[in-house]
Amino acid sequence: MQTPAPFDYERATSVEGAIASLERIGPDARIIAGGHSLLPMMKLRLANPAHLIDINDLDELSYIRDADDEIRIGALTRHVDLLKSGLLAQWFPVFREAEQVIADPVVRNRGTIGGSLCQADAAEDLSAVCTAAKARVVVRGAGGERVISMGDFHVGPYMTAVGAGEMVTEVRLPRRPGGGSAHEKVERRAGDFAIAAVSAAVWIDGGTIADVGVGLSAVAPITVELSRAEDLLRGRAPSEELFEQAGQIASEDCAPTADGRGPADYKRHLAGALTKRALRRATARALHQEA
Ligand SMILES: Cc1cc2nc3c(=O)[nH]c(=O)nc-3n(C[C@H](O)[C@H](O)[C@H](O)COP(=O)(O)OP(=O)(O)OC[C@H]3O[C@@H](n4cnc5c(N)ncnc54)[C@H](O)[C@@H]3O)c2cc1C
């Protein structure tokens, strides 16, 4: 089946209007942003929303800005804008590295950060990037805003903490000195979803790892936040031995399944090898920042 089930459609003219429609229509309503994940699912009848609320006219949700100690990214910001942002490249080069290997220009010109995170597809790159960067997601409903850490945002495969009558409006990244970040991905062909991908962000203070974030894509039912490795690394001087141990933890703490992209033990191996590489490169950048 290649055509979606019938649905009603409206173009929101404000965030408040979109939220009011979500509230009025209830669970049958879905936000559509870039449509690059939702429309294929509708065509396959894996998603059958009765009502689409199109937020593409909401320019107020498209921005990347510096706000004191945070970088704030509007939910409707497209992949291409994340790719080109000088501000992000300066503070979180992991975004540019990931965006260079997400899909192709057609998808990147349309797909959004809000849609990527809300799709909650474990194979998707930006969730690992945002997990590593210690991002927080702003969710707005009629009653006000909630700010949710990436660790709490995905509650299962294709499921998020966004409630009925709510939508994502912003992603916030803590902007701290001494940071470096990197993304490592193995894919079958350029532009494919990952066989495995790892994002790492490291903050160095006085020669030791003050904080660190590691996110894994495509090696478990949801994006993996590698907390056990983060706990191991925090407060220690960076070294190859530590990165090796973190890679070992990644191989142990992921839960890949065999599919058309590869066998489970290969993905487990990749999780370890890519974690080591991402941490090594993120740390080199952080040390360069600190110097
Ligand atoms: C051929 C192809 C290759 C791709 N390759 C990759 C890849 O290599 N790596 C990768 O990471 N991604 C890849 N993608 C996915 C791409 O990044 C999508 O653009 C992205 O996953 C979804 O963004 P979107 O804006 O299109 O979301 P949509 O499809 O519009 O929406 C996706 C989901 O999010 C919800 N949603 C959207 N915005 C909001 C909001 N603000 N608040 C609440 N809910 C919201 C929708 O209701 C829907 O459930 C690929 C896609 C295609 C078609």
Topology, please?
Layout: E1 8-11, H1 15-25, E2 29-32, H2 38-43, E3 51-54, E4 64-67, E5 70-74, H3 79-84, H4 86-91, H5 93-100, H6 105-108, H7 113-119, H8 125-132, E6 136-141, E7 144-149, H9 150-153, E8 154-156, E9 159-160, E10 167-174, E11 179-187, E12 194-205, E13 208-217, E14 224-225, H10 227-233, H11 240-253, H12 264-290
Parallel strand pairs: 1-3, 2-3
Antiparallel strand pairs: 4-5, 5-10, 6-7, 6-10, 8-9, 11-12, 12-13, 13-14
Bound molecules: flavin-adenine dinucleotide.
Overall CATH architecture of the largest domain = 2-Layer Sandwich
CATH topology description of the largest domain: Uridine Diphospho-n-acetylenolpyruvylglucosamine Reductase, domain 3
How does the overall form come out from the CA principal axes?
A: globular
Top CATH class of the largest domain:
Alpha Beta
Spans of at least 5 consecutive residues whose pLDDT stays below 50 are none
Bound molecules: flavin-adenine dinucleotide
Question: Can you list the strand order of the major beta sheet?
Answer: 4-5-10-6-7
| Average pLDDT number | 97
Structural class: alpha+beta
Radius of gyration: 19 Å
Please tally the β strands and state the result: 14
Main sheet attributes: strand count, strand direction, barrel closure: 5 strands, antiparallel
What separation lies between the terminal Cα atoms? 58 Å
